[in-house]
Amino acid sequence: MATTAGTISTVAANDTLVRPSRSLWSNALWKLRHDRLTIAAMIALVLLAALSASADLFAQNLFKYSFEKQDLLHTYEKPTFDQLAYLLGTDEIGRSQVVRLLYGGRVSLAVGFVAALVNLSIGVVLGLSAGYFRGVVDDLFTWFVTTLQSIPTLFLLLIIAAIWEPGPVTLTIVIGALFWTGISLYCRGQTFSLREREFVVAAKTIGARDRRIMFNHILPNILPLIFVLAAIDIGGIILVESALSFLGIGILPPTPSWGNMLTGATNYFVRAPWLVYPPGAMIFLTVLCLYLIGDGLRDALDPRVRAAGS
Q1: Burial of 239 (0-12, 13-18, 19+ CB in 10 A)
Q2: Residue 57 burial class via C-beta count within 10 angstroms: exposed 0-12, middle 13-18, buried 19 and up
Q3: Please, what's the b/e burial string for 212-236 (b: 16 or more CB within 10 A of its CB; e: otherwise)?
Q4: Chain Cα centroid distance, residue 69
Q5: How many CA within 13 A on the CB side of residue 2?
Q6: Which position among 2, 176, 219, 306 has the lowest Cβ density within 10 Å, counted as fewest Cβ atoms?
Q7: 73, exposed or middle or buried, with CB in 10 Å at 0-12, 13-18, 19+?
Q8: CA 201 → CA 10, 17, 56, 144, 187, distances in Å?
Q9: CA quadruple 281, 109, 255, 81: dihedral positive or negative?
Q10: Residue 123 and residue 68: Cα distance in Å, rounded?
Q11: 166 has a pLDDT exceeding 80
């Protein structure tokens, strides 16, 4: 019996010795698979994106109603199941609310994700460069970021809206070009500490170029938490787009977005309150899912959080 127990313990010890250690990404993936709240948020966000991307398919085959179609004989129709196009009612000029909600989701989500990609690209490159080269490059970077942050964003957006007519493409570029400072400052701070580590010194010793050190050695070490910041930034950008459209300096009708749908609905809140709830609920649900995903990614990727929980 003792021999059997000893054999089992020896096999277990050998199995422990030969089992390969998990990488950061393997640990993160394992933890995400066991985080039901983050998985539910991801599924909900993917479902919203799939429904918005299929807006043309639903409009033509299911609702048989385009987002621009007007029917003045059926204005302020209450939500009903008798006609699928009136599932969420109609607005002041007889347009289907459910069809416009799908198209508005496509616009709002596209603005959020593309603008986040733009500010992520700008912020990472500038932050890495400032933190790695320091000196004059860092001084110019700090001066530019301080100057940009000192300008009231709303006034700057009002000036841009007065010069260029707001639209999905224009708004995406403007938001992406203005909201990169947070990610860039994070990258700069992390690069300051990483550039003095042994693996960077070793890369310099063997003659690696600065660009290779920045993007092949430093960037992978800060990339996990950049994903977290990007998820949170997408939610913030969707809120910004909705707020700008609500104020009339974002995406303008007839192009639907959740923000300008909410703007039009508030003018008729007493007469048709059902027009307010769907776009507001979509904005709330999307931003909530993105923040939950960001929080789940932080728990899975931040080694300090994992060390505290172990």
Answers
A1: middle
A2: exposed
A3: ebbeebbbebbebbbbbbbbbbbbb
A4: 31
A5: 0
A6: 2
A7: exposed
A8: 42, 32, 54, 29, 19
A9: negative
A10: 38
A11: no
Any bridge partners for residue 90, and if so which? 96
Please give the pLDDT value at position 249. 75
Measure the CA–CA gap between 244 and 170, rounded to whole angstroms. Answer: 13
Per-residue tokens: 140? 């110019």
Q: Residue 102 in contact with residue 51, Cβ under 8 Å? A: yes
Paired with 96 in beta bridges are 90
Give the three-state DSSP class for 90. Answer: strand
- Pair of tokens at residue 59: 């409009």
Higher-confidence position of 204 and 245:
204
Q: Which of 179-193, 218-232, 235-249 has the highest average model confidence (pLDDT)?
A: 179-193
The pLDDT of residue 22 is 61
Would you say 226 and 242 are in contact if contact means Cβ atoms under 8 Å apart? no
Give the C-alpha separation, 197 to 218, whole Å: 10
